[in-house]
Amino acid sequence: MYKNEFDNYIKQGKISNSFVFFGESNFLIDMYTKMMSNVEDSSVLSFYHDEYDFSSAKAHLSQASLFGGRNILIIKSEKKVPKKELDTLISFCEKNKENIFIYAYYGSDYKTYNNKKTFSGTKTMSVRFFHPKDYESQNIIANIAKEKQVNIDKYSISHLLNIHNGDVALAANEIDKFKVYDREITTKDIEKLVFGLAEINIDDFITKLLSKKDFKDDLANMLEHGEDEIRILTSITSYLTQLYMFNIYIRVNGTPNAMEILGYPAPKFVVDKKATLSIKFKPIAYYKLHKLLLESELKMKSSNVDKGAILLSTLIRLQQLI
């Protein structure tokens, strides 16, 4: 099923006690995992990625709760749980309605889970989450702000989402910053506490740069909006370092794994974009590019230098090296 159908079941109080969440939106998978496991006086066992152990998971659902409440098992992973093991864990929920099992799958191979026949004969709710649409993202942020007692209108929420290129997870993480204000949050507050306007397209700027496209107008626009030359340079260095990590991992393992490379489960479209770009450059190119950027950063930090001129010449040289 999809999010809207699942939301209707929640409103009607007709939810099951076992769930399989998957799809394009890691944020929504996380949000609904938290929502379905928010049960008072419960005994929660969570496995994150490579921590999963079938024996421990099975034991948790088969024993009585230490707190006299409900046993909740949560598995978060980019790797698939073997079907037989998944069926066994679900069966414990079929036998004991006090159990709750949530399988949050962050991988891209979810075709099986999207098939209604996969969990036929059980009450398991299998839900696919797409990236939220603009109005959905605004509603999500509005609800988070309300929960945290942050006074912010829909126009400021829209501005916040635009700054983060529509990434609802990043926008949601910013809400805590606004709790210091005992008044309505304005777009000026957002620009002050979140990012400068020039940072809206910093990743797009770097992608354009590495694709050897003309970047000068974008660079001028960022500098006009007050972006710092050194910060632009360090952002490029950081981005290249991530690409190099992707490059190494793919050459060794064949396919990228965001959790092992970045330390967190990034959205699939982000992983695919960085993986594709990373393999365009050879290891020697990464070495030369990092050397150029670090040397230029050192020059910029010297006194009485034209940082803008150094940055421009560095970026021109960078495109010549790739």
Describe the structure in your own words.
It is built from 15 helices and 5 strands. With 322 residues, the chain is an alpha/beta fold. It has 3 domains: 3-129, P-loop containing nucleotide triphosphate hydrolases (Rossmann fold), CATH 3.40.50; 134-195, Helicase, Ruva Protein, domain 3, CATH 1.10.8.60; 200-321, Zinc Finger, Delta Prime, domain 3 (Up-down Bundle). A 5-stranded parallel β-sheet has the order 2-3-4-1-5, with helices on both faces.
Can you give me a brief rundown of this structure?
The protein has helices spanning 3-12, 26-36, 54-62, 83-95, 134-147, 154-163, 168-174, 187-193, 202-210, 216-224, 229-253, 258-262, 268-278, 283-300, 307-321, and strands at 18-23, 42-48, 70-77, 100-105, 125-129.
